[in-house]
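User: Hi! I'm a student and our assignment asks us to look at how structure tokens line up with a sequence. Could you show me two examples?

Assistant: Happy to help. In each example below, the sequence comes first and the structure tokens follow. Example one:
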Amino acid sequence: MHLIRFYYQYIPDGKEYPVLCRRLQNEKSSWFKKILQFGKGNFGKEEQVLLDWNEIAKRYGYVHVGTCRVSPDHNFLAYTVDITGDEHFMLQIKDLRNGLIIPKLQKEGVVSLAWAEEGRMLFYTQADENQRPYRQTFVNVYIIDANNSLGGLQRIHERIPGIQYFLEHHHGFFYILTNAPLEKNVDCLEEDYYVARCRVEDIKSADWQDIVLQSEDFSIQDMDIFSGHLVLFVNKNGVSMLCSINLPLDADDNHHLEIEKLDPWFFPLPSNSCSVAPGSNHDFMSSSYRVVLSSPVMPDLIVDYDMSKRTFSIIQQEEVKVQHDVELKTNLPDTLDVQEVSDTQNKRENFQNCDSQNWKDFSEAYCCERIEVTSHDGVGIPLTILYTPMTFQKGQSPGVLQGYGAYGEILDKSWCPYRLSLLDRGFVLAFADVRGGGGGGDSSWHRSGNGLEKPNSIHDFVSCANFLINNGYVHKDRLGSIGYSAGGLLVGAAINMHPNLFRAAILKVFKWQFNFSRVLLLYNFKLRYKIDPINTQGGRNGLNNKKEMYKKRNYDFQSFNVPTSFNERTKYVTPYWIPVYLSLPNLHQNWLLSDFFFMVPFLDICNTLLDPSLPLTVLDYEEFGNPQIQKQFESILSYSPYENISKGSCYPSMLVTASFHDARVGVWEAAKWVAKIRDTTCSRCSSSAILKTNMLGGHFGEGGLYGGCEEMAYEYAFLIKVLRTPDHD
């Protein structure tokens, strides 16, 4: 008998963290309907609570669950948990049959894990004493036969600096996403990623078949694989797109395959979508692919794309009520003209031909513009501007500019209900995709803003700030900025370069976001509020009592069969081969210029990079340079925020936040920066630089739902106080 279990998680009313639960399929109809209506669990004894984040937080004061994996036989739950905020994760394995944690299997410093042999064996990797991976982009990738886990590791390729491999297994073939150099006669940009495939037995040979995009406008970002389809995440001139290709490929004789000739289907997307993220796609046999779409004016939209029928259906869209008396605008998407991509599809996808309701956005209440700003060297910098037409005053409005520009990361411009608090007060919000980040579409955009080219990021940010002022979007004395983590370096350096350009700044460790462990295999649930954090009364208790703030919960669930034999596996069950990556990505992010927020900001880069004992120092040599090398040291010193504070200058009002247990950016960086600002700049500045230290959390803040709301309210109150004129409420 095939048992189907539903795994899901939700936040109980009045709690800050989710609980992970499961039920059998035949119990679904009644309890799931109640969850959708009331957002509550515990509807009967059939529900089994697997993990309660709230209990861990109650015991230790802080909790961050990293990886969470249910064994293929559904008997064990393996998860990693951080209880201090220093990102030192401990592996725990819970026996789901009796609810007990197995003490002898607890391991410290675990980074990743994978089940094998139908749940009889667990593989895991551990960080070293400095909590850093062995290499950053100098990577070895090994595979393990999941049916013969004692057979040892098999390396897929000789290690080459800067070359990466990401594997998927499909019916006797490995599909490999890599940036390994191609032959000279293949038209693919250097260092861009492409897909290759080979038979399992040929993994060590050079007999790989390359699958490439011929157009220079396109770059492949990621891939996912199913029994009948290959899904590619593609970027075209900074715009995210997805396409699917039917499998198996009938092209064994061709060494090089062009994607354009494989009849790709490019998913129809809304014209204003900025964020395109995969949903829960764990069923290997499925022909449907779930995607979460979002933009600054479009609430999160869950869409299922049928890759066989080449149609799509909208599963759910987050509902948010705005202050304005306006309905959500219904949009027919300005879909990609597939004629530009493939001659095999010669007509536009028509949204109305699909059996689905239309997606909606707030484009009539809030205006979202995308503009290209010319930087100091003539390069066009993408700038996204968001404002409310009803409250916008040309040349008079307050505004906030946000930037990041590091590690090739794309600036987050997805839907955020908290922004409505500022927009409804007449603020203009702008997002600068400066060089060094990922907003340019390919790896060259990152390379042109890192290492010796890092000053380009700073000039780009200043150019975008001047554009907002010179074109009347923001008043010249009412522009603020926000920089998270490495974005704090960007903002701090821009202030040193032009102290009078901004009125306020926030620099902090990391953009706060409450994410219900996206690494969960089975169920991803998000709770959203339409909250004005400034007007929320009573702190945490006030939030608990404001039931009207609970507008809707978004659910995304997946069912799984327990296979009777390995051939009937789903993607949830361990595949024949497990790729093991003996490196970790260097994770950083950023956030929101006249006021500045620096959130665990990277402000003392010179001294940090001179201390190789710190966790990320050696890894950051590839991003910013090695100060042991004279030329690179001089470059870093030229823009380091701490070393370049202008003596006697008048600096903007600043809110600088830090976390005591941050393992990525030391708390001393923010403290040193604020102390030097107070000591070096004019007397007015000494009283307008605020240092706020979180003594509980780490790089990602205090954690918890309400803790994040309180942090956001504090930051928004700072911006409103500094940037708004007395005639505004």
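Example two works the same way, sequence first and then tokens:
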Amino acid sequence: MDFLIGCAVWSHKGWVGELFPPKTRQSQFLQLYSQHFDTVEGNTTFYATPNSQTINRWIEQTSPKFKFCPKLPRHITHNGKLQPLISQALEFAEIMRPLGSRLGPIFAQLPPSYHPHYLEDLTVFLAAWKQTQLPLAVEVRHRDWFQPINSLNLNLCLEAYQVGRVILDTRPIYTEATDGEFWEEMQLERKKPQLPIDFSLTAPFTFVRFISHPILEVNLPFMQEWVIQIQAWLQDATQIYFFVHCPQEDFSPRNAKYLQSLLEIESDFGF
């Protein structure tokens, strides 16, 4: 399957009675989640690195076709330059390696403070990461990365090491809409950067983070655009990891499933 869709997490109690049957225990969340979705963005690893017992449980509860996309820990990505922490990043890669076929791209989210002046630092880091032979995707958040010359240099760097460039689409949460009961969650979520979208492919896969609005209708024009782009990628045999977020996590699965239904209606690829 070249198109994999999922959410940011698999463990959300608000999904009990909706995505999960009533009275589902938390220990069953991952197994049930993996019956609905192909992949998950492993945000949990950003805050804590799992031990081998946890990794083994993940393996036991999912099929070999399911993909985990673990996030590099924040102490690696959010402490200035990456070079001093290369050994820790490589250690993290080895901790994740036992996932085997279940391991999708590892995901490095760089903070807004990591600006284009750090391109050489990033290049050295990626050269070191190459020895792991594990797929990696990088998200940049400093706006200057999106200036034409900086964007080109970044893409050339990523392409040289076959590293994916994460696409962060926050347009739905910045759309002028009535937030209503979701006002508080929306204000918090709007701390995410409003950045241009660069569809450049720098690896055999692409990694999309779609920050959806709790009100389904607000997302529709953006979802329809994504259906067209996804179809184009599929025609080129690009593997797609597509993660649907929502400020109100209760609605992430609904929004993800709706996007998938649009693809099924419009696509000839068979999902």
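Here is something you could point out in your write-up. The chain has one domain: 3-266.
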